[in-house]
Amino acid sequence: MSTAPDPRLAQEFVEFAVRAGVLRFGEFTTKAGRLSPYFFNAGLFNDGARLGRLAEFYARRLLADGAGGDLGFDMLFGPAYKGITLAAAVAVELARRGHNLPFAYNRKEAKDHGEGGLLVGAPLAGRVLVIDDVISAGTSVRESVTLISAAGARAAAVAIALDRQERATEGGRDAPTSAVQYVTRELGLRVSAIATLADLLDYLRGSADPALAAHAAPVAAYRDRYGV
Predict the structure, then answer these.
(1) In 3D, which of 201, 205, 174 has the Cα closest to residue 23?
(2) In the chain, what are the domains?
(3) How far is 183 from 111, CA to CA, in rounded Å?
(4) Which of 19, 105, 150, 166 has the CB geometry, 3.0–4.6 Å to 84, for a possible disulfide?
(5) Is residue 189 packed enough to be buried (19+ CB in 10 Å), middle (13-18) or exposed (0-12)?
(6) Distance of CA 220 to the CA centre of its chain
(7) What are phi and psi of 76, to 5 degrees?
(8) Which residues, including other chains, have CB under 8 Å from residue 89's CB and lie 6 or more apart?
(9) Residue 188: phi, psi to the nearest 5?
């Protein structure tokens, strides 16, 4: 299943992403060919301070999910390429908070010298958390599940920064569900997002900055057209 973000944490994160220039507003063409009024580019968490703060948000979200003491996973896996730095940074932050867990990631192409293979880091074992920035089509998650299963481990959950809450595309057409819903229903994985499109809308509508508040209407219109 997909677990709901904590509203306060989500609002903190959206504000942080906006101030960092990672969440931008205007007109952007998505991979699906849609004209979106906002764009989230996690690659712009591109210095130590921003990446460290981002890792804090992931860790807080994951620890809230595991309030009973068991986080529900035994290690982290970062799919190439953005997931690599995310998995490493979140592993550091979780260790700082008392949960020292191994992590691994994959290469896009198998290395044919040295240790060889597609996987780098700790051996995949037990319950594995896949960590990425967003789920656009579910392709990266499916590939990660295949790698994890082939190594004898089990994909247990997925953590992302933002759930766009919009319909995926299949064969150039809008699908009835989002990519996150596909991952939860078809792959049977829990998805934890720090924030969602609904949280972004709440932030814009509550902003005291008229320039930011003005983006609420086009974002809401986009959700009405493509949202789930």
Answers:
(1) 201
(2) 2-226 (3.40.50.2020)
(3) 29
(4) 105
(5) buried
(6) 21
(7) -115, 150
(8) 51, 52, 54, 55, 58
(9) 70, 30
Place of tokens 């960092």: 20
Place of tokens 């948000």: 57
- Tokens 């759930």 correspond to 163
For tokens 């990519």, the residue is 179
Report phi then psi at 74, rounded to 5. Answer: -110, -15
Written as six digits, the tokens of 33 are 């060919």
Question: Tokens 């995926």 — which residue?
Answer: 168
Distance CA 125, CA 154 (A): 7
Nearest to 80 by CA among 20, 19, 144, 12: 144
Catalytic residues: 111, 113
For residue 107, what pLDDT band results from cuts at 50, 70 and 90?
A: confident
Give the Cβ contact number of residue 109 at 10 Å.
8
pLDDT digits (tens, 9 = 90+) for 132-188: 999 987 788 999 999 999 999 999 999 999 999 999 888 778 888 999 999 999 899
The token duo for 117 is 């293979």
Task: Dig out the tokens for 156 from the structure.
Answer: 């247990």
Tokens of 87: 């998995």
